[in-house]
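Sequence in, structure out.
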Amino acid sequence: MKKLLLALISCVFIFSVVGCSSKKEEKKSEEKVIKMGFVPLKNSEQLVEDVKPIADYLSQKMGVKVEAFTASNYIGVVEGIGSGSVDFGIIPPFSAVLAQKQSNAQPLLTSKGKTGKSGYTAELYVRKDSGIKSLEDVKGKKVAFVDPSSSSGYIYPGAMLVKAGINLDKDISYQFSGGHDKSLQLLLNKDVDVIATFDGVEERYAKDFPAALTDIEKLASSDTIPGIMVTASSKMDKDLQEKLKQALLDMDKDPKMKELFTKMFSITGFEEVDQTAYNKVEETAKVMNVDLDKVK
C-alpha cells in the first residue's frame, strides 16, 4: 500500500514539474518581443503609431510579438541592428549597406516600388517662384538635406551637386533637417531654397502640407537607387528571419497590408536581394567622401 502511495505521489510530482515547466516555456514565448526598426521618415511617435498595423500583421504571421522602433536619426537604427536591440529594420539602402559593413547584418529582402520593380530616385526640389532652373543655380543657396546617412536625403542628391561642380562646404550653406517632412516644411516656409528628398514627397505629405502639390517642382533626379531593404541583425534567430521573409513575401496576398505599405513607403512588395545592385550605393558614397567604416 505504501509503495502504491509513493508511486502516486511521484507521478503527481512529475506531472506538476512538467506542467510548470510547460507553462514557463509558454510564458517565455509570450514575452518574447521582436523590434522592427525604421528611420525617422516623420515624427517618431506618429510613425510608430502609423506602422502598428504592420507590426500586428507580422506578429500574427511570425507567431511572436513585433513592436516598431524608430530612432532620432538614421545611424541610431543602424547601431540598434548592430547591437541586436533592433532585430530587423526596413531601411534605406545606404543604412542597409552601412549595417552590413559595420555589424555583418543580414540582407533579407529588397522592396519593389510603384512600378513593380526594385528601386527609386532622389530628387532636388525647389519652389516654383525660386528662379532656380539648373544645378549650377544652386550655388550660393540654402539647402536642406535630411540626414548624413540618408540615401535620397543626402548621399545621392549630394553627389549630383558635387558632379555639377558644386563644393558642398564652400558653395552652399546647408543643414540636416532630421526628416523628409521637415525638409519639405522648411522649403514651403522659405527657410531654405532647395531640398534633397525622395520622388513623390509632395504626394506623401500632401495631407500635412497641401501647398506642396502646387508650390514646388523638381529641379533634378538622381540615378536609380536600389530599393529599401529588409535587414536583420546578425543576432536575430535564423528561424525568425525565415518567418519574417515569408510573411513579407506573402504581403501580395493581403490587399490591405499592400495598400498600407504603398501609402506609407511607396512599397508594393518584396523580392530577393540582388546584392550587386547595392555596389552602386558604395560608389556614390565615395563621391561624397563617405567612408562606410567610419560613419558613426
